[in-house]
Amino acid sequence: MTKRCLPRLARALTLSAGFIAVSFAAATANAADVNIYTARQPELIQPLLDAFTEETGLTTATIFLDKGLEERIAAEGANSPADLIMTVDIGRLDAAKQAGVVQPVDHAALAENIPAEFRDAGNEWFGLTARGRVVYASKERVDVDQITYKDLADPKWKGRLCVRSGQHPYNVALIAAYVAHYGEDAAREWAAGLRDNLARRPEGGDRDQAKAIFAGECDIALGNTYYVGKMMTNDKEPEQKDWANAIKVIMPTFDNGLTHVNLSGVALAKNAPNKDNALKLMEFLSGDEAQQIYAELNYEYPVKPGIATSELVTSFGDMKPDDMPLAEIAKFRAKASEIVDEVGFDNGPQS
Questions:
Q1: How far apart are the first and last CA of the chain?
Q2: Residue 32, phi then psi, degrees to nearest 5
Q3: Which of 79, 103, 214, 250 is disulfide-compatible with 26, CB 3.0–4.6 A?
Q4: pTM
Q5: Cα-flanking dihedrals φ and ψ of residue 241, to 5°?
């Protein structure tokens, strides 16, 4: 990290998590220099936007839309005030592309900062951070330190696995990656194996799976890496530190020895009224300063080569991201969702 980044990063780390989303209408499209529609939790991106404003003098306004983001922009049409879309999960990035609410960006800095496997082949979306879909394992009851995704369906884990809904985008993306690697039939068999290894019906979020391991309800779970960092540093809810301290992170792999990752990302809105300013923000978010803030504040993996992960995330172990392009994995999301329903995954174990 450069000396220039240090004071800004320090200020970012002290920002309050409280955030009030700014609503805007088409008539106030120029209320800010860059208008952002986001499905990311606002407190996770506000420090980055503050650093951008300090760097450039350009202001930002943000509206948080956990659901219906693409539909809203489509309904607003040519009068939409949205300049950028920021979201999590390859599925949501691809959904924005398929809905026709984004436009391609030919920008040298983005191509240089973001590896090809983390951006759309047509340059309609760009990854900003990566997070591994890994195994949370009980420190007390699990004595292995290596595992493959295939192993999770092995009957030796029967009654020992916890996970959130199979239809959650994070799990749909993982199953889609399994389809991409091994085919539909193998993925269906694998999903059924996971189902029958469940200790309970899928429920809650990734943090709830760590809580279940802490409580002795299961021994292993699927979860994203960054939640572990969030739990380990949660002073407002210190019980989450106990959940995190009860688990170890294991980096599961496909046959290629690599771990499935998902993304947070950004796309330029189709009718962006402040396109030039929006491009400046996209470039900033892919650059050294913002990538370092992502790493230190959100416990995510920067996508720009050469930017170090936080010390805490480094302690999880060496993660080697799957090199299959996420745009390719996104093609199998619909099939993955079908598989979840076909095997009755969310009904819980059936044998």
A1: 52
A2: -135, 165
A3: 79
A4: 0.87
A5: -65, -35
